[in-house]
Amino acid sequence: MEFPLFCVVILCFHMFGFSSGAVDEDDENKRYFACSSEGYHKMNKMFKLYLTSSKLTIQCFFLADRKYTSQGVLSTFTSGGLAPSLEIINSTYTGIFHFNLTLFSDQVFWSIDIPRENITKMRAITSIEEWLVRVSLHHGLNLYATEGTLLDIIREPILQWKLGVVMNRERLLQVLPHVTDVKVTKCPCANDVALLGFIVNATYNGIYLGFSFSGFWEYGNTTWYNLTESIYSQLEQDLPGLSIVDMVLTNNFLVLLTSLGLFVSADLRFPSASLLTFSRADFCGFERTDYIRGKLWYNEHCFANREMYEVDYITITFDRNRTLSEASVCFYSDEPFIDWLPCIPHSKRTRSVSSEIITFLVDLERKNGVYFLSSKVGLKTFVSVNTVTNNLPSMRRKFPAFYFPSSFSDPMGLVFHPRSNFIYAYGNQIWLSIDGGNTFDIIADFHDDVIKKTFHSFYTGDITFVSQKGKVYLTKAGLVQYTEIGAIHDKIFTLYYDHLGFIHKLTPYKFDADKSFSAMGSSKAIFHKSFDIGFESPLALQYISLSQVMFYAYVPPNEPAATKHTKEFTRMHFGKVLFPRCLSLIQVVKYTSGIDSVFQDSDLQKTVVIPGYSSFLITAIVDNITALAVATVPERAPLNSTITRWLLFNFGIVGGRQWTIYPRKCNYWYYQYESGDQLPSNVERYLDLGKGYSFKTKIVPTLRALKASEVPLMQISVGNPALLDTTVLFFFDNADSYELNVTMFTRFLLRGTSTLSITLLEASTDCFTASFLPIIKTSCSYLRFMYHVPSQPISEEALNSGNHTDEFGFNMIKTLPVNYRPPSKMGIAIPITDHFYHADPSQPIPRNLFQQSKNTGKFKQCAAAASRKECNCTNDQKLSHAVAFSDCKENVPRFKFPVQQYPVSLQIFTRSGSLPVEIPYLVTVTEVNKRENWVLKHSTPPEIAKLQAYLKSSLNVPVYNPEGLNISIRGAELFHFKVSVVPGLTFCNLVEEFQIYVDQVPLPFPGHTLIAIAAAILLGGFVFVVFMFQLHNIHPWEMCRKKCIGEAMM
């Protein structure tokens, strides 16, 4: 006979208090301290900042009922030397700015003005991260702290376009009654930038989008666009029944799946004055009924500071059977989403594939294709991970296929958590893979309910699942536990996470969010109250130690199988807290045989607890001295014994359930830092070849009942282990906090990206985050570059002015002539270089008399300009030594002749500071204008002699040791040198250029000129004399011979 009790150990029984695990100030402080860039801040308004081409102005207030109260609070803190500090953070950057400590006149706020150049100098339109902004009354104290976001609105691509025809409120109200569903998509790098699309019924027609760059906080702040004409312009005829089906906003493109086809926008990085245009992707054999049942799949990754190997992919699947004439019902494409290929490559093997593709995603870290398939034979669901080469999937599997159990009977989709390597398969169950699809672990089983939608927040790690019954479940990235947080009864809705992890419920008529901001980034905010996840079964309590108990859920033997799972503990209850309904739960009854009426009807479903023995759940009261009960541990039942004392616990459901189950409060503080500075949860770091990176993670238990010395259960995984060697050391510090030291090193000369996930498996879903997900790129950081340290530094101001004298009064700056070109080996007057300096197309070109000079010389920055003003040279370009900006270069360092042993001192700038360029780096040195009258002095240590010789033969240029390099110059005027680190020693293209103008060259000694002139005169004189002798028929030799003969005869 099957034992009718199902047991689970509840980790925490509410016999002790709890404290919140959020590292935050109380709600009262939040309510009164606020900041804004739009004047006086209003209550219940999110802190949003926007970076324009001008300065960023921020004001911080103490919100109070009266102005004088606010002013008094400000004066109190200011007199104490406290003023707010502003911290701007993204995955690669942290900047701290301090407000003015002085208050002017009757000012009731602190203020700060930050020039744009102090935050970023970049202005190119590209996918850019939205910054997190933290303002606290004093940096490091976390006193009166508030959070917000900062969005660069002149660089975010989609903000530069007009999406369509703007709709007024009257036009919008005409569309709303026809809306049957809504879809939302958001920018991968700036989650506050989002689009909401209306799916309309067959009686209406059109593409209607709502656009927000502030996170859909206010319905009235949403701009509504009609894109119908833009879509119809790509169709041969205006067919009826046009509607959005699905949409994806990638880093650079907007992709719309409509009932009449798939449309891809123009590249958002190159805006125009016209409306956003689209092109249509053709899928042969697919009609309107197929597109309506189509779905887009996208692995969301932010490609700010994009690497060459980073590619966006989109998959489209059609919910229909493939015919013999069709290549596939699943297609994928990468940017610019022009060519759409079958998800399974065409081969002889694919003809016999009998599995239905549910979805196909590309693992951007491991470069694998992840297939989620359902087999027609045996009704099996499985995941197959295949290799991807040159952006094309192959039939070669990376791992053996993972087959799910038959209970996973209704698979719906597969999704990557943003900016991570966590894969979730969902349907009537939820499964998690942390190793790229090789294995999966079950998280939840919903039996007769099915998950239809998932929503994610990279900032908080929240993952929300919505079932077809409207129930909403929450888990944290990497956790294998989940909880039910509520239900949504709206017929038409979608959920959306903004950049700070706040969840929003979006419907056609209104938007719901947590207006109080009391639960920072909480997925529970829109449900307003905690959700009891208990079930209707009596519980039996069994002590297993002095501090641990076990609960048994009693399920009657005649319970139908269809409802049996609703009356027992499930995976959802793992890690939750059981709360008694009332405090006086324990009744102590002294039993003797002389006392009658011991059992009462109210004792039904109570638990008889006998110390040292099995407990008994009372299932029936026979009479006042007899009751039927079920033993929790039959082997420990006191058979043939008389028990005179026991305890009665009431965890029954008679008269209402006497217990509840809720998620426990956050039980750990969890933060990470490097070099003493706290890191954001989505930090991104670059590792050069042979370099390492270290950080620390600290875990502090917050529950008083948890022993500080207990090692928390953690899970650490590397997304791409082929890139990194990872070492983790863990220990307890002096405060009994658990600390992990993580060190990573690059393994090969292989560029790539890998996430490192550190998940605290015992963390509550109530915690702000349960995983730390740093992104490591084995590539060259955009902050890493090489620069030349001049022997005599000259400030930028002096270089701009053209005047900087040394102690002897010598001006060390030379202003180059207009359209200047350095001399060549053919002479000063015959320049043959292509590079102009101080270019001005409106001025004549000097030294341009010879044909060799006329055939060379090309403008770069000024190629299409008619004057120097039209060259649009920036100040940075004028100061740059790069040959690419030689047209803009006006002033260069000036030295007296001769230049002897000028030191070539090189430094590499990194996030952590500057490092000297030394072995194992080797460099090449060239003169960009091909001048030859200079000599490089260097040394070759024995340990690099062979490597130096090999590189010299393979690169066909001399290779030098960068230590102790110096240059001697024996020529005049401008020398432009280029120093490059040889490839294979770093991921970076480390190149530096510097210029030296050699002036006051003395005239050379004229001896060789005088000798040449004298020789010419003598030779000319001799020829002239010979000519005159010949002219007058004078023969000196004959005359001499006759004279000699005459003297001899005499």
Automatic annotation (TrEMBL):
The residue ranges of the CATSPERB head domain are 539-578, 588-662
Sequence intervals crossing the membrane = 1010-1031
Q: Which residues form the Cation channel sperm-associated auxiliary subunit beta N-terminal domain?
A: 33-152
- Residue intervals of the Cation channel sperm-associated protein subunit beta C-terminal domain: 780-1037
Q: Has keyword Repressor?
A: no
Which residue positions does the secretion signal occupy?
1-21
Domain CATSPERB Ig-like: where?
677-778
User: Could you tell me what this protein is called?
Assistant: Cation channel sperm-associated protein subunit beta
PANTHER family this protein is in?
A: CATION CHANNEL SPERM-ASSOCIATED AUXILIARY SUBUNIT BETA (PTHR14705:SF0), CATION CHANNEL SPERM-ASSOCIATED PROTEIN SUBUNIT BETA (PTHR14705)
Point out the gene that encodes the protein: CATSPERB
Does the entry feature the keyword DNA damage, yes or no? no
> Pfam families attached here?
CATSPERB_1st (PF21541), CATSPERB_2nd (PF21548), CATSPERB_C (PF15149), CATSPERB_head (PF22830), CATSPERB_Ig-like (PF22831)
Q: Source species, please?
A: Echinops telfairi
